[in-house]
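Example 3.2
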Amino acid sequence: MRVMVIGSGGREHALTYAVAKSPRVDEVLCVPGNAGTASIGQNIEVKAADPDGLAVLARQRGVDLTIVGPEAPLCAGIVDRFEAEGLRVFGPSKAAARIEGDKAYAKRLMKLAHVPTAEGRVFERYKNARDYVATRDTGVVVKAAGLAAGKGVSVCEDPADGLLALERIMVDRVFGDAGDTVVVEELLKGQELSVFALVEGCTIYVLETVQDHKPIGDGDTGPNTGGMGAYSPAPIATPDMMAVVERDILVPIVDAMRNDDAPYHGLLYVGLMLTAAGPKVLEFNCRFGDPETQPILMRLQSDLIDLLEAVVDGRLADAEVHWSPRPAVCVVMASEGYPGKYESGKVIEGLDHVAAMKDVYVFHAGTRRIENVTVTSGGRVLGVTALGDDIADAKRRAYEAVEAIHFQNAYYRRDIADKAIPTDG
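Structure, written as C-alpha coordinates:
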Protein backbone atom coordinates (compact mmCIF):
# COMPACT_ATOMS: atom_id res chain seq x y z
CA MET A 1 0.00 0.00 0.00
CA ARG A 2 0.98 3.66 -0.42
CA VAL A 3 0.87 5.92 2.65
CA MET A 4 1.13 9.71 2.84
CA VAL A 5 2.39 11.48 5.99
CA ILE A 6 1.58 15.19 6.18
CA GLY A 7 4.01 17.45 8.05
CA SER A 8 7.70 18.25 8.33
CA GLY A 9 8.75 17.87 11.96
CA GLY A 10 10.21 15.26 14.27
CA ARG A 11 6.79 13.75 14.87
CA GLU A 12 6.32 13.22 11.14
CA HIS A 13 9.77 11.64 10.77
CA ALA A 14 8.86 9.27 13.62
CA LEU A 15 5.55 8.39 11.96
CA THR A 16 7.32 7.82 8.64
CA TYR A 17 9.92 5.63 10.38
CA ALA A 18 7.22 3.48 11.98
CA VAL A 19 5.04 3.29 8.87
CA ALA A 20 7.96 2.26 6.67
CA LYS A 21 8.64 -0.74 8.93
CA SER A 22 5.23 -2.23 8.07
CA PRO A 23 5.51 -5.15 5.62
CA ARG A 24 2.24 -3.92 4.13
CA VAL A 25 3.69 -0.58 3.02
CA ASP A 26 5.35 -0.29 -0.37
CA GLU A 27 5.88 3.48 -0.49
CA VAL A 28 5.68 6.47 1.87
CA LEU A 29 5.08 10.01 0.63
CA CYS A 30 6.16 12.79 3.01
CA VAL A 31 4.48 16.14 2.44
CA PRO A 32 6.57 18.25 2.65
CA GLY A 33 8.88 16.19 4.88
CA ASN A 34 12.45 17.02 5.92
CA ALA A 35 15.99 15.74 5.40
CA GLY A 36 15.28 12.71 7.59
CA THR A 37 12.05 11.61 5.92
CA ALA A 38 13.79 11.89 2.53
CA SER A 39 15.98 8.94 3.51
CA ILE A 40 12.89 6.75 4.06
CA GLY A 41 10.24 7.97 1.64
CA GLN A 42 9.68 10.53 -1.08
CA ASN A 43 9.38 14.17 -0.07
CA ILE A 44 6.84 16.19 -2.06
CA GLU A 45 6.62 19.98 -1.86
CA VAL A 46 2.94 20.60 -1.16
CA LYS A 47 2.09 22.78 1.82
CA ALA A 48 0.39 21.11 4.79
CA ALA A 49 -2.01 24.08 4.83
CA ASP A 50 -3.33 23.26 1.32
CA PRO A 51 -6.07 20.62 1.81
CA ASP A 52 -7.26 20.86 -1.78
CA GLY A 53 -3.75 20.33 -3.15
CA LEU A 54 -3.17 17.44 -0.74
CA ALA A 55 -6.43 15.76 -1.74
CA VAL A 56 -5.49 16.07 -5.41
CA LEU A 57 -2.05 14.62 -4.67
CA ALA A 58 -3.55 11.70 -2.72
CA ARG A 59 -5.87 10.85 -5.58
CA GLN A 60 -3.22 11.27 -8.30
CA ARG A 61 -0.70 9.08 -6.48
CA GLY A 62 -3.20 6.43 -5.41
CA VAL A 63 -2.63 6.95 -1.68
CA ASP A 64 -4.33 4.27 0.42
CA LEU A 65 -4.03 6.05 3.77
CA THR A 66 -3.08 9.59 4.78
CA ILE A 67 -1.75 10.35 8.27
CA VAL A 68 -2.01 13.98 9.34
CA GLY A 69 0.77 15.03 11.71
CA PRO A 70 0.34 18.70 12.68
CA GLU A 71 -2.64 20.36 14.30
CA ALA A 72 -3.16 23.24 11.85
CA PRO A 73 -4.49 21.19 8.92
CA LEU A 74 -6.63 19.11 11.29
CA CYS A 75 -8.20 22.23 12.78
CA ALA A 76 -8.72 23.59 9.25
CA GLY A 77 -10.78 20.53 8.32
CA ILE A 78 -8.46 18.44 6.16
CA VAL A 79 -10.06 15.19 7.39
CA ASP A 80 -13.51 16.39 6.38
CA ARG A 81 -12.12 17.38 2.96
CA PHE A 82 -10.50 13.98 2.40
CA GLU A 83 -13.51 12.00 3.56
CA ALA A 84 -15.76 14.02 1.23
CA GLU A 85 -13.51 12.79 -1.59
CA GLY A 86 -13.73 9.19 -0.41
CA LEU A 87 -10.07 9.20 0.68
CA ARG A 88 -8.99 7.25 3.75
CA VAL A 89 -7.36 9.49 6.37
CA PHE A 90 -6.29 9.16 10.01
CA GLY A 91 -7.20 12.10 12.22
CA PRO A 92 -10.17 13.84 13.85
CA SER A 93 -12.74 15.96 12.05
CA LYS A 94 -12.64 19.75 12.17
CA ALA A 95 -15.32 19.74 14.86
CA ALA A 96 -13.37 17.28 17.01
CA ALA A 97 -10.01 19.01 16.41
CA ARG A 98 -11.50 22.07 18.09
CA ILE A 99 -10.48 20.44 21.38
CA GLU A 100 -6.98 21.75 20.56
CA GLY A 101 -7.73 24.59 18.19
CA ASP A 102 -9.87 26.52 20.67
CA LYS A 103 -8.65 26.39 24.27
CA ALA A 104 -11.67 28.37 25.44
CA TYR A 105 -13.96 25.72 23.96
CA ALA A 106 -11.88 22.95 25.56
CA LYS A 107 -12.12 24.68 28.93
CA ARG A 108 -15.90 24.97 28.71
CA LEU A 109 -16.22 21.33 27.62
CA MET A 110 -14.08 20.14 30.53
CA LYS A 111 -16.26 22.01 32.98
CA LEU A 112 -19.42 20.54 31.48
CA ALA A 113 -17.92 17.04 31.67
CA HIS A 114 -16.54 17.58 35.20
CA VAL A 115 -13.03 16.79 34.00
CA PRO A 116 -10.45 17.85 36.61
CA THR A 117 -8.49 20.86 35.34
CA ALA A 118 -7.04 24.13 36.56
CA GLU A 119 -9.47 26.81 37.66
CA GLY A 120 -9.58 29.45 34.97
CA ARG A 121 -11.47 32.15 33.13
CA VAL A 122 -11.87 33.04 29.46
CA PHE A 123 -11.47 36.62 28.23
CA GLU A 124 -12.12 38.27 24.90
CA ARG A 125 -11.23 41.81 26.01
CA TYR A 126 -7.75 42.85 27.10
CA LYS A 127 -9.00 45.23 29.82
CA ASN A 128 -11.08 42.55 31.52
CA ALA A 129 -8.21 40.05 31.44
CA ARG A 130 -5.76 42.66 32.73
CA ASP A 131 -8.04 43.65 35.60
CA TYR A 132 -8.50 40.00 36.58
CA VAL A 133 -4.79 39.16 36.58
CA ALA A 134 -4.01 42.36 38.49
CA THR A 135 -6.14 41.07 41.40
CA ARG A 136 -4.24 37.78 41.64
CA ASP A 137 -1.63 37.24 44.34
CA THR A 138 -0.40 33.86 43.11
CA GLY A 139 1.03 32.58 39.83
CA VAL A 140 -1.04 32.29 36.66
CA VAL A 141 -0.88 30.59 33.29
CA VAL A 142 -1.86 32.73 30.31
CA LYS A 143 -2.86 30.94 27.10
CA ALA A 144 -3.69 32.22 23.65
CA ALA A 145 -6.92 30.36 22.90
CA GLY A 146 -6.05 29.68 19.26
CA LEU A 147 -3.23 27.78 17.61
CA ALA A 148 0.19 29.30 18.32
CA ALA A 149 2.59 26.53 17.21
CA GLY A 150 3.07 25.35 20.80
CA LYS A 151 4.31 28.77 21.94
CA GLY A 152 1.10 30.39 23.13
CA VAL A 153 1.35 29.38 26.80
CA SER A 154 3.10 31.58 29.38
CA VAL A 155 3.71 30.11 32.83
CA CYS A 156 4.01 33.07 35.22
CA GLU A 157 5.08 32.57 38.84
CA ASP A 158 4.51 36.30 39.39
CA PRO A 159 1.16 37.83 38.31
CA ALA A 160 3.15 40.83 37.02
CA ASP A 161 4.62 38.52 34.39
CA GLY A 162 1.06 37.47 33.58
CA LEU A 163 0.24 41.09 32.77
CA LEU A 164 3.20 41.25 30.41
CA ALA A 165 2.08 37.99 28.76
CA LEU A 166 -1.41 39.39 28.26
CA GLU A 167 0.01 42.51 26.64
CA ARG A 168 2.15 40.47 24.26
CA ILE A 169 -0.79 38.27 23.26
CA MET A 170 -3.72 40.70 23.14
CA VAL A 171 -2.07 44.07 22.44
CA ASP A 172 1.16 43.30 20.58
CA ARG A 173 -0.63 40.33 18.94
CA VAL A 174 2.52 38.22 18.70
CA PHE A 175 0.31 35.22 17.84
CA GLY A 176 -2.08 37.10 15.56
CA ASP A 177 -5.72 36.01 15.62
CA ALA A 178 -4.83 33.13 17.95
CA GLY A 179 -4.72 35.73 20.72
CA ASP A 180 -8.17 37.23 20.16
CA THR A 181 -9.30 35.20 23.16
CA VAL A 182 -7.17 34.18 26.15
CA VAL A 183 -7.55 31.67 28.94
CA VAL A 184 -6.12 32.63 32.35
CA GLU A 185 -5.65 29.73 34.75
CA GLU A 186 -4.30 29.05 38.19
CA LEU A 187 -0.70 27.83 38.19
CA LEU A 188 -0.73 24.14 39.06
CA LYS A 189 2.23 22.49 40.78
CA GLY A 190 3.57 18.99 40.21
CA GLN A 191 5.11 16.87 37.47
CA GLU A 192 3.74 16.89 33.95
CA LEU A 193 2.69 13.74 32.13
CA SER A 194 1.66 13.15 28.52
CA VAL A 195 -1.04 10.58 27.78
CA PHE A 196 -1.72 9.36 24.23
CA ALA A 197 -4.94 7.53 23.47
CA LEU A 198 -6.25 6.08 20.24
CA VAL A 199 -9.96 6.86 20.17
CA GLU A 200 -12.62 5.41 17.86
CA GLY A 201 -16.11 6.39 18.86
CA CYS A 202 -16.57 4.91 22.33
CA THR A 203 -13.42 2.77 22.22
CA ILE A 204 -10.27 4.09 23.90
CA TYR A 205 -6.83 2.50 23.83
CA VAL A 206 -4.19 4.23 25.98
CA LEU A 207 -0.67 4.01 24.59
CA GLU A 208 2.47 3.64 26.70
CA THR A 209 3.18 6.47 29.13
CA VAL A 210 5.63 9.27 28.36
CA GLN A 211 6.95 12.40 30.06
CA ASP A 212 7.89 15.55 28.15
CA HIS A 213 10.21 18.40 29.21
CA LYS A 214 8.68 21.72 28.13
CA PRO A 215 10.94 24.45 29.61
CA ILE A 216 14.06 25.37 27.66
CA GLY A 217 16.51 25.03 30.55
CA ASP A 218 17.82 22.32 32.85
CA GLY A 219 15.79 21.90 36.00
CA ASP A 220 12.65 23.02 34.14
CA THR A 221 13.75 26.65 34.00
CA GLY A 222 13.13 29.33 31.40
CA PRO A 223 10.31 29.79 28.89
CA ASN A 224 8.17 26.95 27.59
CA THR A 225 8.98 25.34 24.26
CA GLY A 226 7.36 22.75 22.04
CA GLY A 227 9.34 20.17 24.03
CA MET A 228 13.05 19.62 24.69
CA GLY A 229 13.01 15.89 25.25
CA ALA A 230 10.92 12.96 26.43
CA TYR A 231 11.16 9.45 27.78
CA SER A 232 8.93 6.39 27.90
CA PRO A 233 7.68 4.76 30.04
CA ALA A 234 7.15 7.28 32.83
CA PRO A 235 7.45 5.49 36.21
CA ILE A 236 5.36 8.19 37.89
CA ALA A 237 2.35 7.00 35.85
CA THR A 238 1.36 4.05 38.02
CA PRO A 239 -1.39 1.63 36.95
CA ASP A 240 -3.69 3.08 39.63
CA MET A 241 -3.08 6.61 38.37
CA MET A 242 -3.70 5.64 34.76
CA ALA A 243 -6.97 3.99 35.77
CA VAL A 244 -8.02 7.33 37.28
CA VAL A 245 -6.98 9.18 34.12
CA GLU A 246 -9.06 6.88 31.95
CA ARG A 247 -12.10 6.94 34.26
CA ASP A 248 -12.14 10.63 35.22
CA ILE A 249 -10.65 12.29 32.14
CA LEU A 250 -10.65 10.24 28.94
CA VAL A 251 -14.07 8.62 29.20
CA PRO A 252 -15.90 11.84 30.23
CA ILE A 253 -14.28 14.04 27.58
CA VAL A 254 -14.84 11.51 24.78
CA ASP A 255 -18.49 11.20 25.84
CA ALA A 256 -18.83 15.00 26.02
CA MET A 257 -17.44 15.41 22.51
CA ARG A 258 -19.81 12.81 21.11
CA ASN A 259 -22.72 14.57 22.82
CA ASP A 260 -21.52 17.85 21.31
CA ASP A 261 -21.78 16.42 17.77
CA ALA A 262 -17.98 16.10 17.58
CA PRO A 263 -17.27 12.36 17.94
CA TYR A 264 -13.56 11.70 18.16
CA HIS A 265 -11.65 9.43 15.79
CA GLY A 266 -7.89 9.65 15.94
CA LEU A 267 -5.11 10.23 18.45
CA LEU A 268 -6.13 12.24 21.51
CA TYR A 269 -3.28 13.76 23.52
CA VAL A 270 -3.79 14.75 27.14
CA GLY A 271 -1.26 16.99 28.87
CA LEU A 272 -1.58 16.45 32.63
CA MET A 273 -0.22 17.98 35.81
CA LEU A 274 0.09 15.41 38.56
CA THR A 275 -0.93 17.55 41.54
CA ALA A 276 -1.28 16.63 45.20
CA ALA A 277 -5.04 16.48 44.55
CA GLY A 278 -4.63 14.10 41.63
CA PRO A 279 -4.11 14.45 37.86
CA LYS A 280 -5.51 17.62 36.26
CA VAL A 281 -5.69 18.47 32.57
CA LEU A 282 -3.41 21.20 31.23
CA GLU A 283 -4.44 20.78 27.61
CA PHE A 284 -5.86 18.45 24.98
CA ASN A 285 -4.22 18.07 21.58
CA CYS A 286 -5.81 16.50 18.52
CA ARG A 287 -2.68 14.70 17.26
CA PHE A 288 0.52 12.90 18.26
CA GLY A 289 2.77 15.01 20.48
CA ASP A 290 6.29 16.09 19.62
CA PRO A 291 8.80 14.94 20.91
CA GLU A 292 6.84 12.28 22.82
CA THR A 293 6.03 10.38 19.63
CA GLN A 294 9.69 9.61 19.04
CA PRO A 295 10.37 7.43 22.13
CA ILE A 296 6.89 5.89 22.01
CA LEU A 297 7.27 4.71 18.42
CA MET A 298 10.80 3.47 19.11
CA ARG A 299 9.17 1.12 21.64
CA LEU A 300 6.20 0.06 19.50
CA GLN A 301 6.54 -3.53 18.29
CA SER A 302 3.13 -3.81 16.62
CA ASP A 303 2.45 -2.63 13.08
CA LEU A 304 1.49 1.06 13.29
CA ILE A 305 -0.52 0.80 10.07
CA ASP A 306 -2.69 -1.93 11.59
CA LEU A 307 -3.43 0.30 14.59
CA LEU A 308 -4.25 3.42 12.60
CA GLU A 309 -6.43 1.51 10.16
CA ALA A 310 -8.27 -0.06 13.12
CA VAL A 311 -9.30 3.48 14.11
CA VAL A 312 -10.21 4.50 10.56
CA ASP A 313 -12.22 1.33 9.95
CA GLY A 314 -13.96 1.23 13.33
CA ARG A 315 -12.38 -1.91 14.75
CA LEU A 316 -10.05 -0.54 17.43
CA ALA A 317 -11.68 -2.80 20.02
CA ASP A 318 -10.14 -5.81 18.27
CA ALA A 319 -6.62 -4.38 17.97
CA GLU A 320 -3.64 -5.99 19.71
CA VAL A 321 -0.68 -3.83 20.69
CA HIS A 322 2.77 -4.99 21.75
CA TRP A 323 5.54 -2.88 23.25
CA SER A 324 9.21 -3.34 23.88
CA PRO A 325 9.88 -3.51 27.63
CA ARG A 326 13.01 -1.42 27.05
CA PRO A 327 12.70 2.30 27.84
CA ALA A 328 13.49 5.01 25.30
CA VAL A 329 14.86 8.53 25.80
CA CYS A 330 14.69 11.37 23.26
CA VAL A 331 16.93 14.45 23.57
CA VAL A 332 16.07 17.43 21.38
CA MET A 333 18.95 19.35 19.83
CA ALA A 334 17.84 22.90 19.12
CA SER A 335 19.19 26.07 17.56
CA GLU A 336 20.56 28.53 20.11
CA GLY A 337 17.97 31.22 20.78
CA TYR A 338 14.95 28.92 20.46
CA PRO A 339 12.07 29.42 21.39
CA GLY A 340 12.96 33.01 20.41
CA LYS A 341 14.98 34.12 17.41
CA TYR A 342 17.60 31.76 16.00
CA GLU A 343 19.74 31.32 12.91
CA SER A 344 19.26 28.56 10.33
CA GLY A 345 21.41 27.09 7.59
CA LYS A 346 24.03 25.55 9.90
CA VAL A 347 25.73 22.40 8.57
CA ILE A 348 25.02 19.28 10.68
CA GLU A 349 27.92 16.85 11.11
CA GLY A 350 28.16 13.42 12.72
CA LEU A 351 24.89 11.94 11.49
CA ASP A 352 26.59 9.10 9.62
CA HIS A 353 28.59 8.18 12.72
CA VAL A 354 25.47 8.07 14.89
CA ALA A 355 23.58 6.03 12.27
CA ALA A 356 25.98 3.15 13.03
CA MET A 357 25.23 3.20 16.76
CA LYS A 358 23.15 0.35 18.14
CA ASP A 359 19.66 1.14 19.45
CA VAL A 360 19.92 4.82 18.46
CA TYR A 361 17.87 6.71 15.90
CA VAL A 362 18.02 10.40 14.97
CA PHE A 363 14.63 11.89 14.12
CA HIS A 364 14.90 15.07 12.07
CA ALA A 365 12.71 18.08 12.79
CA GLY A 366 14.07 21.39 11.49
CA THR A 367 16.39 20.12 8.75
CA ARG A 368 16.74 20.24 4.98
CA ARG A 369 19.18 19.06 2.33
CA ILE A 370 21.24 21.49 0.26
CA GLU A 371 23.60 19.97 -2.32
CA ASN A 372 23.93 16.69 -0.39
CA VAL A 373 24.56 18.50 2.90
CA THR A 374 22.09 18.46 5.81
CA VAL A 375 21.54 21.88 7.40
CA THR A 376 19.37 23.31 10.15
CA SER A 377 16.08 24.93 9.19
CA GLY A 378 14.16 25.30 12.44
CA GLY A 379 14.27 25.90 16.17
CA ARG A 380 14.09 22.26 17.16
CA VAL A 381 16.50 20.49 14.83
CA LEU A 382 16.91 16.83 15.86
CA GLY A 383 15.36 14.35 18.29
CA VAL A 384 18.17 11.95 19.23
CA THR A 385 16.45 8.84 20.58
CA ALA A 386 17.83 5.67 22.15
CA LEU A 387 16.57 2.42 23.64
CA GLY A 388 18.24 1.07 26.77
CA ASP A 389 18.09 -1.73 29.30
CA ASP A 390 16.72 0.82 31.77
CA ILE A 391 16.08 4.58 31.74
CA ALA A 392 19.62 5.39 32.82
CA ASP A 393 21.08 3.24 30.04
CA ALA A 394 18.77 4.79 27.44
CA LYS A 395 19.78 8.27 28.62
CA ARG A 396 23.48 7.37 28.42
CA ARG A 397 23.09 6.07 24.86
CA ALA A 398 21.09 9.12 23.77
CA TYR A 399 23.60 11.63 25.12
CA GLU A 400 26.52 9.67 23.70
CA ALA A 401 24.89 10.14 20.29
CA VAL A 402 24.11 13.81 20.97
CA GLU A 403 27.75 14.50 21.75
CA ALA A 404 28.75 12.96 18.41
CA ILE A 405 26.55 15.38 16.44
CA HIS A 406 27.69 18.93 15.77
CA PHE A 407 26.25 22.10 14.27
CA GLN A 408 27.03 25.71 15.08
CA ASN A 409 25.20 27.06 18.14
CA ALA A 410 23.59 23.73 18.99
CA TYR A 411 21.74 23.71 22.31
CA TYR A 412 20.19 20.90 24.35
CA ARG A 413 19.13 20.16 27.89
CA ARG A 414 21.39 17.82 29.83
CA ASP A 415 18.86 16.47 32.31
CA ILE A 416 16.30 14.68 30.13
CA ALA A 417 14.86 11.65 32.01
CA ASP A 418 16.59 12.49 35.31
CA LYS A 419 13.18 12.55 37.02
CA ALA A 420 12.82 8.85 36.27
CA ILE A 421 16.29 7.75 37.38
CA PRO A 422 16.56 6.67 41.04
CA THR A 423 19.14 8.55 43.07
CA ASP A 424 21.10 7.26 46.05
CA GLY A 425 19.61 8.16 49.37
